[in-house]
Amino acid sequence: MSGRVALITGGQQGIGLGIASALVEAGFDIAIAAEAAPDAPAVTAALEKLGGNARYFRHDMRDLDRIPALVDDVEARMGPVTTLVSNAGVGAPVRGDMLDLKPENLDFVLSVNLRGAFFLAQETARRMAAREAQTPRSIIFITSVSADMVSVERAEYCISKAGAAMMAQLFAARLAADGISVFDVRPGIIETGMTAGVKDKYTARIKAGLVPAARWGTPADIGAAVLPLAEGRFAFATGTVIAADGGLSIARL
């Protein structure tokens, strides 16, 4: 083992896999945590792609009671976690008028994107802070441009990402003196399974000028943004928000 262990939630697909690929290529050992069964096609394909330095740990982000056991498991098999990439998340179960938003849909999104993410970060941070640093340590929250860009048809998602952005600031302030850097990476319109259902809509809008970079983002774009943060190259910039969105969130006339 390399001594650099990155725990990536939702690392078996999409943005998470893009991040895992960038980190494993740089020599990190990768622990993927997700709800899918270990023999699910996405999991087996991800492990084949990542190679022998990756392990899979089944975990439901809503199961707060099992968080210590998850981290125990990772540490027993791979060593202490030096980087947590809090990436797992769910979108709005139903896109539509926010005036019709159902409580159960709000609760579901917040249970994964906020509650699950917070308490896993809390457990990981406690353990990081209790150990003497042997390598750069970081917690990286993958939030979204939706943290401050409004989409009224998916209010619960925007609310969850705004909360996650504040969560990143809170952990950054709390952990700075412990030498643990915390960042908020905000992807824009990224081509993944989550956005497949709106591909035609956003392709047209991108062609019309919505994204200054004039293209969809890719999981590899997000991996490239996360890698130097995990490596400790921006440690003193803790608390920074990185807009990985091709210029989408730039205020323009």
From TrEMBL:
Pfam families: adh_short_C2. GO terms for biological process: fatty acid biosynthetic process. This is 3-ketoacyl-ACP reductase. InterPro entries: NAD(P)-bd_dom_sf (IPR036291), Sc_DH/Rdtase_CS (IPR020904), SDR_fam (IPR002347). Keywords: Oxidoreductase. The keyword Oxidoreductase applies. GO terms for molecular function: oxidoreductase activity, acting on the CH-OH group of donors, NAD or NADP as acceptor; quinone binding. Belongs to the short-chain dehydrogenases/reductases (SDR) family. PANTHER family: 3-OXOACYL-[ACYL-CARRIER-PROTEIN] REDUCTASE, SHORT-CHAIN DEHYDROGENASES/REDUCTASES FAMILY MEMBER. It comes from Martelella lutilitoris. The lineage of its organism: Bacteria, Pseudomonadati, Pseudomonadota, Alphaproteobacteria, Hyphomicrobiales. The keyword ATP-binding does not apply.
